[in-house]
Amino acid sequence: MMREDQFNSDDLVDESLLLQIRALGHLPSPSSSALKLYSLIQTEDADIREMAAVIKGDVALTARVLLMANRAGAAAGRPVAAVEDALVRLGLKTVASLAIGLSVIDEALACKTPDSRAYLDICYRSLAAGVLAEWLSDRPKVPACAADMFTCALLAHSGQMALLRFYPQPYADMLCQKRESYELLELEKNQLGINHQLITMALLHEWGFPEVLSEAIRLSEAEPEKRLGEERRQIMAQILNFAWEASASLVEGNRAQLLNLLPGALARLGQDVAEGDVVQMADNLQKRWGEWCPQSASQGERTMNQAALSASEEQPVSGQLALLLVGVPEPELSAWTEIFQARKYAVDFCSNLHEVGQLLIGQVVNILLVWQPPQAGCKLLETWVKDSARAALVIQEDLDEATQIEFLKLGVDAVVPRTVNPEYLLAQVGRLAAKVGLFQTLEAERDAHRKLLAELVLTTRKLHLQTLTDPLTGLANRRMADAFLKRHWAQVERRKIKLSCLVIDLDNFKKINDLYGHDAGDSALRAFSTILKRHVRQEDLAVRLGGDEFLVICPLATAADLEILRHRLMRATGQLKLETGSLEFSMGIAESDLTTMRSYTDLLKLADQHLIQSKRMR
Prior knowledge:
This protein is an alpha/beta fold. It has four domains: 1-21 and 112-312, Hypothetical protein af1432 (Orthogonal Bundle); 31-110, no CATH class; 315-440, Response regulator (Rossmann fold, 3-Layer(aba) Sandwich), CATH 3.40.50; 478-617, Alpha-Beta Plaits (2-Layer Sandwich), CATH 3.30.70. It has 29 helices and nine strands. Strand 3 (367-371), helix 22 and strand 4 (391-396) form a beta-alpha-beta unit. The two termini are 30 Å apart.
């Protein structure tokens, strides 16, 4: 029998809306390196050396894989220095999943969104949740792989990133309302026509993410009672739920809140710890957070939002381009800074290429001026110049034709000798500034078009939903039910899976209208509809057929499953306090049977017959 909270990957999203979000480029996407790793593990003879070569081609990924491997192997006391050894220690599939998660967050941090504060908050909280989930999973007797849980936490809210790109203002406002995860999912579905978890599940399915991990992510946002239990998936869901809940305190450096949350999370996992140990644990978590997000560690007790505000205050004013001088020595550094500032450029500097990555997070850099990059830093340089919104110029002492060609192949826009004339350097920077300015103009036009299209899609979506929704109760109407049944009956015929439904009729409803009036009757209908919404599963469809008749369609459910639902509805309805008195109902249940049914109308007819029998017995 199917678990009541199991999901069906074939019916994850409204495909038309997902296609619109994808067409506008709003879906988070992994890097080519991550996708290459995932394609390699799909083969029967996955080669460690080939995977290691892909990882080594991405300097940032190499560092993170080694960091995770050394953490996982801390008990063994043997540090890992080679990528091949890290792959053996962590496992090929785990590393491929980790690469997917990290690259999605990297891509998200680099993405420009209308509401950047809300977007950055999701990105940093996802990374912090990964740190928390990894740490909890690494505790004794916890049946979860720490690296896998780190990746799950990274990806669990990727659907929210997509919605913030597609519906920037309405969704940012929605996130400001403090709600439980399952309440937010319902609000998103009602107001936007899709919820973030459906998008996340679709993306995970598309990337070939392990089903057991996807199920843990889905369950982590379910009602609390569904997460409770000793099954492995439930324990993983509890870890992910806590990790997200506590992620804000880690990002904001709120030590007191973290200390308050840790004991409850550990207790739910059966971990007994002394009060003094909790303080040490909080210190350890903040240290780990600093390793994954170094700029946060240097900000002390400032919150990430405060850091974002400060960063925005330090950004160039409108129309001013930002230059970053990398490794430029004195006296050139002082002289060039003065020259560029006189031409209204915003100038910053750092000592080497390894510091550039941290400066690029949350800070605008339009043009990089790099002084004699070492051979070992060329890979990093290639990474930074791939962004079309950025230009790069290299100053090289021994500038021959071969060296110049090598840098140009990396993507560098210009190469000049160390003895460059300041006026010539200024002219080169001006040329690069024109290129960046043109890109910014094109991007601004594209953003305006995307915003307009998103608004049109949202308006169209709301109008479309109105044609599929009962205005009184907010439930689906008969038209939506027919489309839903048609789609799922095709699955019944093709895959021989179960589809069940129950037809509900409120007893003596006409008396309520006659004695108390139609307003009271409408209130009773809305109250019963609310009960239906709360007790059906996410993949089910609750429908008002008209009057006092309701229908619930349940994919992958049996008649026995619906009997459980019937008892829950009876209990909940019995607790209703209405001016019209108690509500009672009759119900007919039917389960698909291809030996006796030719279409879904036969399923509905059988449910109606059972409803009539039920009413006669009352």
